[in-house]
Amino acid sequence: MKRLNQKRIKNLWAIALLAVALVTPTTWAKETDQLVLDGSTTLGPIAKAFAEYYMAKNPGVNVTVNESGSGNGAKSLINRTCDIASMSRFMKAKEFIAAVNKGVMPVAHVVAMDGLPVLVHPSNPVKALTVKQIRDIYSGKITNWNQVGGPNLAIVMISRDTNSGTYETFHKLIMTHKVDGKKIKEKISKKAEYVGSNGGIRTRVQSTPAAIGYAGLGFIDKTVKALKVNDIYPTRETVTSGKYPISRPLFMITNGYPKLGSHTHAFVTLYLSEKGQEIIEDIGFVPVTKY
Amino acid sequence: MKITTRKMLDRSFSSFGLFSIVLMILALLVILVPIFKRGSTAIVFNGTVEHRRFLLERFERGDEQEMASEITAIQAAQKPVYDMIEHFENRQRKYLDALNEPLTKLAKRSDSIGRLTKRRLKRLDKNKPFLTNVKTIQKLTDRLKGHVDSDNIQAEIEQLDATIQKIETQTKNLVELKEAIRELLGPAPGETRPVLLRKQYGQTRWDRAQVKLHEVLYIEKWDYSNEGMGRKVFEPRVEHFRGTEIEPLFDYMETNTEAMLRPQLTFYWGFLTDKSMDIHIFGGIFPELLGTVYLTLGAILFAVPMGVIAAIYFSEYARPGIIISFLRICISTLAGVPSIVFGMFGLAFLLNGCHLPKGVLAGSLTLALVILPTIIRSAEEAIRAVPRTYREAALSLGASRWRTVVTVVIPAALPGILTGTVISMGRAAGETAPIIFTAAASVAATLSLNPLQVWDQPTQALSWNIYNLCTEHEAANEIQHVLFGMTATIILVVLFLNLFAIILRARISKKLKGETT
After folding, report:
1. Whole-angstrom distance, CA of residue B43 vs CA of residue B269
2. Residues 6+ away with beta carbon under 8 Å from B422
3. Is A291 in a helix, a strand, or coil?
4. How many Cβ atoms are within 10 Å of A152's Cβ, its own excluded?
5. Domains in chain A, start-ordered, CATH in brackets?
């Protein structure tokens, strides 16, 4: 027993020495600058591509991207746990007040435009819907595809979760309408299925022939079909001109205007550079200006 | 009669047992075989020249001269493709050139129409890509149409329109074709280098290349002519280019893809040691692997000392009573709590309460809490299993209680404690929910190898990033091999940890037996 112990103690010492040797030349001090982004999953592809681009250009800067939803992005900014909140909607009044009360002054930078394509399975013969039809589908008044010119198939509604900015936009632009000059907010039917991410919506729609869903422009591919809304297809032109009814800006929100020359400033103005715009366009979103 | 019944029951029970074991093995095979089969394609695959070019340019691996000769070879093979496209464009360009005359006439006008046309004419440039020029004319036509006194220039507009329409259908098809070819082969020679990495290279894998080749040759369409749902049909793209310079391109591409991409069997070990490039479309999973290792080791570092000390207290010092039984129940309950609850606790207590930064430390602490109950229980069981005579012998020799525990009981219980620890390591490596809020990030710099620098850095981790890529990645369908590669890796990590536990346990108990007898 004793021999064993001695041997083990020797081993322990060896490990401890090795650890010390590894650590000694470096210090506790941080060598890297951190830039933390939190928020929207719609902005995820832009934020991630920007982060990789920025880290490649500025070695020594650690850009972290979290995709937890616009609501969480706002919370993180208010709690000062992130430098940039990427949000697919603007802050709500409540969030804004909470931020100001905590001494955080939200400044919005619109980095790109997005049109929310309404997605169906490509095998679905329906090609276009009006805003009213979409509203009726999501509020549960239209329940079968044959009511909008499709096959006899019960509609499966897929929506984003309520924490998402995409949900807010959809709610504001589709579900809210004016009747006799009064704003009425339709409720999304209880039968709707809620999904936590844009990619999740696409996965759900591509595997369900009867499904309808909505996601950011950057998430469309061949596995889903985007519909014409009010006879307009979401393209670069129709989104920037606002002709496409579900168009919206995508924000990056900082606490105050970032200090000139800081990494935060360089990062949130990346979208103004030609390369930044090219990235945005190649991912599938709409750049703010025509470069 | 009685005996036969009993025998029957006995047999049926053992056959039932056998059956369930076979079922279990089958289930295991059904789950594991596809994962490993598809996961291995992340490392062993038919890599194209684009993969080698990527490795050379981004990671400086490979032979530069060999690469240069390879590139000349593929450029020679690709040249006919680009030549055909250029011929086609040149012919289309002539239609545009015919517009020069009416346009210069319009530009001579002194009103706003003239100024507008002049501005647009300046943008027309023979050296510019053909399609850019088409767009310029298109825009000009649109603007002219909207002009107040467009009646005066009706004839010119009609001429512009007719030409544009002639070109339009052809160019639309051409744009699609060029895009499909670019996705397969990478940017055409002379094109400006795109910023996004995924646009800089063609297909790096032969299996993906074949998918893309199919997209070059066929257009995916949906046929809605029947009642009900549509049917997928593939329309040969060549139909759009019958009788043009591009017609032979399709046959050429189909027969010469191998010459253009030169696939060879590749062992890409860098999948485990390279960082990811362009969000996992290229490169490997090293940051994820390292993050998982850090989080797991961190969790063990915190949980094992606490767990073992608690176990010692429970089994050696505590007097049986209500409080102790209550605590035991608490620990058992804690072991059954869903891990997302620990995640929420980590967020509420560690991040929001103690203001720890989101990072490895917070994640490790949360994971430590997840595995703590298991470690306490297994350590306690192991300590209890040490025969009483060991303790009595030590105490009778005059050793104090503490000394007895440290020198006799713990060494004897070590195999059990270690097994519990290593199995918990497997659990910590695989947990996703506790680290969502406390440590995980979709993109972050690779962690430093110095543990003291990483404690406040968020990190990627295998478990979380598998989920993240599956649900969040904009090109999830294109990177299936990475997803399965990650999944296979994490299963292998857990498998090796468990194997390590078994071997360690066997060795230590052998040693202990050798010492004690």
Report:
1. 6
2. B497, B498, B500, B501, B504
3. coil
4. 10
5. 6-112+250-283 (3.40.190.10), 117-241 (3.40.190.10)
Q: Which residues of A touch B348 (CB under 8 A)?
A: none
B468 touching chain A per CB within 8 A: yes
Boundary (domain end) residue, out of B193, B224, B245: B193
Query: Would you say residue B199 lies in a domain?
Result: no
Whats the size of chain A, residue-wise? Answer: 291
> Strand A156-160 vs strand A193-195: parallel, antiparallel, or unpaired?
parallel
**Per-residue pLDDT tens for A132-171?**
999 999 999 999 999 998 889 999 999 998 888 899 999 9
What's the number of CA atoms in the CB half-sphere (13 Å) around residue B369? 24
Domain span including residue B114: 71-178+186-193
Confirm if B406 and B375 have CB atoms less than 8 A apart. Answer: no
Q: Is A176 strand, coil or helix?
A: strand
Q: Nearest Cβ partner of B442 from A22, A66, A125?
A: A66
CA separation for the pair B232, B218 (Å, rounded): 12
B351·A81 Cβ contact <8 A: yes
- A49 with B457: Cβ contact below 8 A: no
Which of A15, A43, A48, A273 is the best mutation test for B, with the most CBs of B within 10 A?
A48
d(C-alpha A17, C-alpha A8), whole Å: 14
d(CA A264, CA A50): 12
Radius of gyration of chain A (CA): 24
**What pLDDT score does A28 carry?**
42
Which stretches of chain B drop beneath a pLDDT of 50?
Answer: 517
Q: Using alpha carbons, select from B347, B288, B349 the residue that is nearest to residue A72.
A: B347
Q: Residues B155, B296: one domain?
A: no
Looking at this protein, which amino acid is placed at residue A18?
L
Contact state of B453 with A26 under an 8 Å Cβ cutoff: yes
Closest CA to B93 of B154, B156, B170: B170
Distance of CA B182 to the CA centre of its chain: 23
ipTM here: 0.81
As beta bridge partners, residue B47 has: B205, B264
Touching A: B residues 227-286, CB under 8 Å? 227-232, 277-279
> Roughly what angle, to the nearest 10 degrees, separates helices B247-261 and B154-185?
30
- Say if residues B433 and B460 touch (Cβ distance below 8 Å): no
DSSP secondary structure letters along B229-253:
S-EEEEEEGGGGGTTSTTHHHHHHH
Token reading at B39: 């996961």
